[in-house]
Each structure stands twice: as C-alpha cells, then as structure tokens.
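Q: For a teaching handout, I want to show students what a protein-ligand complex looks like in token form. Below are the inputs, and the small molecule is flavin-adenine dinucleotide. Please produce the holo structure.
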Amino acid sequence: MMEHNEEVYDVTIIGGGPAGLFAAFYAGLREMKVKVIEAQSQLGGKVHVYPQKMIWDIGGMTPINGSGLIEQMIEQGLTFEPTIELQQTITKMNKLDSHIFELETDQQKIHYSKTVIMAVGAGVIDPIKLDAENASLYENSNLYYSVKSIADFKDKTVLISGGGSSAVDWANELAPVAKQVILIYRGDDFKAHESDVSKLARNNVEYRTHTEITALLGDDSINEVKTLNNQTNKTDTLSVDAVLVNHGYNRNHQLMTESGLQIELKDNYFIQGNVLGESNIPGLYGAGDILSHEGKLHLIAGAFQDAANVVNCAKRYLDPEAQKVALVSSHNARFKEKNKEYLYTK
Ligand SMILES: Cc1cc2nc3c(=O)[nH]c(=O)nc-3n(C[C@H](O)[C@H](O)[C@H](O)COP(=O)(O)OP(=O)(O)OC[C@H]3O[C@@H](n4cnc5c(N)ncnc54)[C@H](O)[C@@H]3O)c2cc1C
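A: Here is the structure, written as tokens, with flavin-adenine dinucleotide included.
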C-alpha cells in the first residue's frame, strides 16, 4: 500500500550528487522548504565512483580527492537542515490539478512538492556486475567494483577486468602500490586514451586482450581466477589477491521516458532545458549532468551553477515578487550566527 507524506515542500530535489547538494544549500539560503530524495544509501552522487582520485578543476578549491569533496559537499548541503530521504528511487512523477507535483518512489512512498529539481545525473549508479559463477559471494571480501581506498591493493596481486579508460587508469595507478597488476579485456583494443595505454608497459602491468573471467575460486575470498582466451579457447588459472571489475555502468532511462510527465528530452534521456535549467514543464527544472543546453558545462563547477540558477527560478515561480538571486553570502544575514561559530570557535 502507498504511504503518503502529506507535507508539501517548496522544492524537492531528486538526486543527492553535486548538483542536488548545492541546490539544497542554495534553496535553504533562499528560505525554501527543501527535501532531497536520493536512491543510494549515501549522498555524494557519482563522485563515489572515484573517491581516491584528485579533483583539480573546481574554481577556488585546491586539489581534493573525491571523498574529501563529498564530505564538504554534504556538510554544505545540510547547512539549512533539509529533509533527506535516502534509499528511495523516484519511479513516477505527475502534476496534480492544483499544480502540486506527486512523486512516487520504489518504496511505495508518495512525496508532494510545489517545484521539482531533477539532479539525477546519469541515473542511479549501478555498476555492471561480473558475469561469472559465484561472483556475488565475494562482493564483501576481495571482489571490487570501485576503488574506495588504494591501500586495499597494497602489495597485492590485482586482476583488473575491463577495457575502458577506468580499467586502464586504475591499472596504471595501482601498479606502483600493488605487488603485480594484471589487466584483462575481452575485446581486442583498449578503449582508453593512447598515452594511458602506452603507460601500461612502462608500469609493468601485464595485459591480455581477448581474455575474460570464467570463474572465481576461493573459500571466503578469491584466491584464483579462471580465464578464457576467446580467440584461442585457451584457459588459464591465475593466483590473485584481489579482483577489480570495471565493466561500466547500467543507465536506467525509465524515469525520464516513463515518468508520467511529457518532459522534452535530448537523446531520449537528458532534459532539454534552457540556460537557466527550466524544462518545458512549469515548476520542473534540471541541474547537473541531466541538463542539456548549448552552454552546458559538464563539470562539477557547472553543476553548481545550474543548481543556483534553478533554485532562483523555482523561488520566483513560487513568488514572482522574490529577488532574482539570493543576497551574496558575505552580506547575507542568514549567516550571521553561523559566522560567529566559524570566526570564534573553528
Ligand atoms: C571517473 C570520473 C571522474 C570525474 N572527474 C571529474 C573531475 O575531476 N572534475 C569534474 O568537474 N567532474 C568530474 N567528473 C564528473 C562529475 O562527477 C559529474 O559531472 C557530477 O558528479 C555530476 O553531478 P550531478 O549531481 O549532476 O549527478 P551525479 O553525481 O550523477 O548524482 C546524481 C544522483 O542522483 C541519484 N539518482 C539518480 N536517479 C535517481 C532517482 N530516480 N531517484 C533518486 N535518486 C536518483 C543518483 O543515485 C546520484 O546520487 C568525473 C566523473 C567520473 C565518472
């Protein structure tokens, strides 16, 4: 049975990645009643894919790794105490007669909101799982779909499966810390940047093409992997301490195409909006990677700008008399008490 959350929010943000978190902050700054709904059990979005990578291209921020950025984005996003709903995937959206959006989740919950900011990026992050016998048994031991900590691979023999830039990149990055890195790919040509592929040999990465995993062997953790050369049909057994699978991500387009609203889309997925992030549906906006327009910047910095733009639009949609933008933070009275905290206690 559906559970209805009767409270109506000024703005509901779908997705708790960079765009959603900055939108939550900015909407709080604009004194809106805010809810964030995130499919995963944690906020931070796609940055969870690369927690150990250094990020250099956010204006005014010195290099920071993904997990450091997530921490800071969450702290900022929660500044004005928005309601956070985790582990709920929005599956349907509708607009009721009274211009209230009705959002339905996979957990049989209904949320109501006067405006909606879609900050869903490329959709729920769902790594393509290894298609090999018993693979699921090792997900809590030494079968990895992402690198949470490089230290997990220190002095280990690591088998990486995948042929894209992520697999090649990790082979090169783990090589100096691991005992040995073996990279296998079922295709014939790695789909990564040429200079990264040529680094493999320099980093002593052993790489094999036309090779795929057929079985993982071990009791509590994997200690051997069976492989097959799909050209020669030759099989091999490799002794390993860890397996990292980088086979890409599933992208669920269902919400965008079957949401219940006739959202104008680009390539059957992205919101075809204007430079302010407005969609063809009044009161519904796109921010971050989901948004498409000719000036769109597909960077975290771009997601932050989209977030401020769409919050300003939502604010004026609800109150046409409202200021176009919020007062800058250095002059904004909303920070008066918080500034004291920073100036005198931190
Ligand atoms: C390996 C890698 C390295 C990168 N490096 C950089 C870099 O150095 N600098 C840079 O600027 N950018 C970088 N990027 C790009 C950057 O991560 C993205 O541009 C950014 O994360 C987009 O933010 P977003 O909030 O739009 O979407 P996302 O980060 O994708 O967040 C979307 C969130 O929405 C949630 N969601 C999706 N659908 C639903 C639903 N139906 N219901 C509820 N929740 C939902 C998802 O679970 C997710 O948490 C990198 C990307 C990758 C993959």
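A: Two things your students might notice: Residues 129-247 form a domain with the FAD/NAD(P)-binding domain fold (CATH 3.50.50.60). The mean pLDDT is 94.
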